[in-house]
Amino acid sequence: MENKCFYLSTCDTCKRIMKEVNIKDDDSFELHDVKKATISESDLEALAKMSGSYESLFNRRSRKYRSMNLKEKQLSEADYKSLILSEYTFLKRPTFMTKDKVFVGNGKKTIASFKVWQAE
């Protein structure tokens, strides 16, 4: 499995982080703009397996999350999977998938961990 970066090209935070960690479309990472092409079910399943759950990949800051009143609902793992596959905004971004680790979202600790992984 090659390294992949799932991001949103219109997101300033994604752009800033990708620049900070020096990720570009080259031999080391395949860039996947989730707005242009939704994440495949097989990639999502691999991410969920590595991260421990679909919920861990789910973006609760999405405007759609609020507009669909999802906070009021009890969501199952199947619901999280289905929502992420149906709408790109529900995937936390950026998400870096390597052959043995996954780094999900834009939290400072996540990005710091990714930088440590890069330095190894």
pLDDT averaged over residues? 93
Bulk shape: globular
Radius of gyration: 14 Å
* Span of the ends, CA to CA: 18 Å
Please state roughly what percent of the residues sit in beta strands, choosing from under 5%, 5-15%, 15-25%, 25-35%, 35-45% or over 45%.
5-15%
Order of helices and strands: EHEHHHEEH
Strand order of the largest sheet: 2-1-3-4
Major sheet: size, sense and barrel closure? 4 strands, mixed
Low-confidence stretches: none
Helix content: 25-40%
Structural class: alpha+beta
Q: Tally the helices: what do you get?
A: 5
Number of beta strands: 4
Structural key phrases:
120 residues, alpha+beta, 4-stranded mixed sheet, 5 helices, globular
What does this structure look like?
It is a single chain. This protein is an alpha+beta fold. Helix 1 links the parallel strand 1 (4-7) and strand 2 (30-33). It has helices at residues 12-20, 41-51, 63-67, 77-86, 108-119; strands spanning 4-7, 30-33, 95-97, 102-104. It has a four-stranded mixed beta sheet, with helices on both faces. It is globular, with a radius of gyration of 14 Å. The protein has five helices and four strands.
Write the layout of secondary structure elements.
Blueprint: E1 4-7, H1 12-20, E2 30-33, H2 41-51, H3 63-67, H4 77-86, E3 95-97, E4 102-104, H5 108-119
Parallel strand pairs: 1-2
Antiparallel strand pairs: 1-3, 3-4
